Amino acid sequence: MERVVLITGANSGIGLALCERLLTEDSQLRLCLACRNMQRAEAARSALLTSHSNAHVDLLQLDVGSVQSVLSAAQEVKARYNRIDFLYLNAGIMPNPQLDLNAFFKGLFSRNVVRMFATAEGILTQQDRLNSDGLQEVFATNLFGHFLLIRELEPLLSRLVWTSSSNARRSAFSMEDMQHREGRESYSSSKYASDMLSLALNRQKNSQGLFSSVICPGLVMTNLTYGILPSFFWTLIMPVMWLIRIFTNTFTLTPHNGAEALHWLFLQNPESLDPRAKYHSLTSGLGTNYTQPRQMDIDEGASDVLYSKLLELEKEVRRKLSEENADEEISAVK
Ligand SMILES: NC(=O)C1=CN([C@@H]2O[C@H](COP(=O)(O)OP(=O)(O)OC[C@H]3O[C@@H](n4cnc5c(N)ncnc54)[C@H](OP(=O)(O)O)[C@@H]3O)[C@@H](O)[C@H]2O)C=CC1
Ligand SMILES: CC(C)=CCC[C@@H](C)[C@H]1CC[C@H]2C3=C(CC[C@]12C)[C@@]1(C)CCC(=O)C[C@@H]1CC3
């Protein structure tokens, strides 16, 4: 039977590499690339069809950072498919990243140097802003848009896979400020929230046959990392990065390597997976790829609280949207 796989943020980086890997694994697959920019989505589709000429590759317009776009895209998915075998929640942003060079050089000479290279703990901040739905942009894109998509498509779904990060950190997240309006680590906070949400979804939905997993792709050269340092600089320090890889294995560096855990999960029986584990894509010093589960630092109770808060926010945004639509209808009649 033809399996249907929907991937958000599939037009570049890790998402596009995953598409390549999945088509190599199963040429009968129906892939749906859910992207906000249709020109880039078309280019990704053409690239995939060049290497897999008989592949079934569909495109879907989806801006996960916009409530209206998620709701419209979900309607379109329901009209097109009667089930989604895998939903990869991969789209993500890190706007205006700032590297704290002082902390970086201090970290280089500390006991935590390996941890710093693996997680970027203490050396990276971002500047977030409100989007047109009145939500924090990073929260809306990396977490809430995906949550809404899951809620809309729930009856069609069986497997969810989140592209999280080693940068997800408990101390960056606050339940009182889940959108991270106050701090400067919105990326870390949103990724920690996705880890929590995955656990909560497993607790609430496994009995109904829905399973969620989280992965970390390692440090990968993509548009996201080129936003932190320019691509020529990364190319310049590539020999140093290969050296660091010997000590951490988290410097996967290429999108193909970064997609290792996403691909590996595609081959696993969901019941054999650990809901409290994050599955890491790792690459050894000799260039061998493998997947390793590592326990996440999460409370089950807190994950349930986050789930309830997201349901509340969902109600609020739906109410706001229907009020706005009603206002528009009234002014159209006038
Ligand atoms: N690169 C790395 O080292 C790491 C990356 N990650 C995670 O991996 C995931 C993929 O990122 P990566 O491949 O690195 O970076 P890219 O920037 O190459 O890919 C991000 C993808 O997400 C899409 N996207 C962004 N915002 C939206 C939106 N509002 N609606 C729909 N699609 C959107 C982008 O589309 P567009 O082209 O339109 O911008 C792009 O296709 C992210 O979740 C990221 O946080 C995690 C750990 C490390
Ligand atoms: C010599 C050398 C390799 C310098 C690079 C220093 C930093 C720019 C990187 C060190 C750890 C990196 C890292 C990320 C970005 C780049 C670093 C801060 C991520 C935050 C990218 C996105 C993620 O989701 C996790 C990554 C963790 C490690």
Give an overview in words:
With 334 residues, the protein is an alpha/beta fold. It contains 13 helices and ten strands. Helix 2 (38-51) links the parallel strand 2 and strand 3. 44% of the residues are buried. The model has no long low-confidence stretch (mean pLDDT 96). The structure holds NADPH dihydro-nicotinamide-adenine-dinucleotide phosphate and ligand LLCNDLXC. The site of ligand LLCNDLXC has 17 residues, from helix 5 and helix 10. The ligand CC(C)=CCC[C@@H](C)[C@H]1CC[C@H]2C3=C(CC[C@]12C)[C@@]1(C)CCC(=O)C[C@@H]1CC3 binds at residues 99, 117, 119-120, 123-124, 165-167, 219, 225, 228-229, 237, 240-241, 244.
Architecture blueprint of SSEs:
Elements: E1 4-8, H1 13-25, E2 30-35, H2 38-51, E3 56-61, H3 67-80, E4 84-89, E5 98-99, H4 101-108, H5 113-119, E6 124-125, H6 137-153, E7 157-163, H7 186-205, E8 211-216, H8 223-226, H9 231-236, H10 238-248, H11 255-258, H12 260-266, E9 277-283, E10 289-295, H13 300-333
Parallel strand pairs: 1-2, 1-4, 2-3, 4-7, 7-8, 8-9
Antiparallel strand pairs: 5-6, 9-10
Ligand LLCNDLXC binds at residues 99, 117, 119-120, 123-124, 165-167, 219, 225, 228-229, 237, 240-241, 244.
Outline: globular
| Gyration radius, in Å | 20 Å
Distance between the termini: 52 Å
Order of helices and strands: EHEHEHEEHHEHEHEHHHHHEEH
Task: Determine the number of helices (DSSP H or I, runs of at least 4 residues).
Answer: 13
Number of strands: 10
What is the chains' assembly state?
single chain
Mean pLDDT: 96
What compounds are bound to the protein?
NADPH dihydro-nicotinamide-adenine-dinucleotide phosphate, the ligand CC(C)=CCC[C@@H](C)[C@H]1CC[C@H]2C3=C(CC[C@]12C)[C@@]1(C)CCC(=O)C[C@@H]1CC3
- The residue fraction in helices comes out at 40-55%
* Major pleated sheet: 8 strands, mixed
* Coarse structural class: alpha/beta
Task: Give the uncertain stretches in residue-range form.
Answer: none
Strand numbers in spatial order across the main sheet: 3-2-1-4-7-8-9-10
β-sheet strand percentage: 15-25%
